[in-house]
Design brief:
The chain is an alpha+beta fold and 131 residues long. The chain folds into two domains: 30 residues; 98 residues, Elongation Factor Tu (Ef-tu), domain 3. The chain contains three helices and six strands. Strands 1-2-3-6-5-4 form a six-stranded antiparallel beta barrel. A hairpin with a 4-residue loop joins β5 and β6. The longest helix has 17 residues. The radius of gyration is 17 Å and the shape is globular. The protein starts with a helix and ends with a strand.
Length: 131
């Protein structure tokens, strides 16, 4: 192994351990939560709390879980998107954020804004999971 590869590997491990992602994944597994469409569908119309560096706790309501219609389903891949709505006055930039839910616990989620219809700002989180 070259020195450069070793440094990349170690720095990646430090970032993950610093973010606590290992603990989060373990906690979710212990709760029986897996990031699957059916599990998110069970919390539609509930709030997820996003930890934002400027706005602090921002409530986002899960509005829909979208699954693509495929003529040939792949038993080894699950793809879906979450559509969330947040307050109109607090635009959140695209990025990864720590999200909290009373039942699901705390986990990281990449969100991208998709529009503002006057009722609030919509966000989308896309998933492609290998099963």
């Amino acid at each position: 192994m070259k020195r450069r590869q070793l440094l990349k590997l170690c720095s990646g491990s430090l970032v993950v351990s610093g973010l606590g992602l290992g603990r989060v994944s373990t906690a979710l597994a212990e709760l029986g939560f897996e990031k699957k469409a059916v599990n998110f569908a069970a919390i539609i119309n509930q709030k997820l709390w996003l930890n934002h560096p400027d706005y602090r706790a921002v409530g986002l309501t899960l509005e829909r879980v979208l699954t693509p219609e495929s003529k040939i389903p792949n038993p080894h891949l699950e793809q879906f998107s979450l559509i969330l709505r947040g307050p109109a006055r607090q635009q959140i930039n695209a990025g990864s954020y720590e999200v909290d839910h009373p039942r699901l616990g705390r986990f990281m989620l990449y969100l991208a804004p998709t529009g503002n219809d006057g009722k609030g700002i919509s966000y989308r989180a896309d998933f492609s999971l290998l099963l």
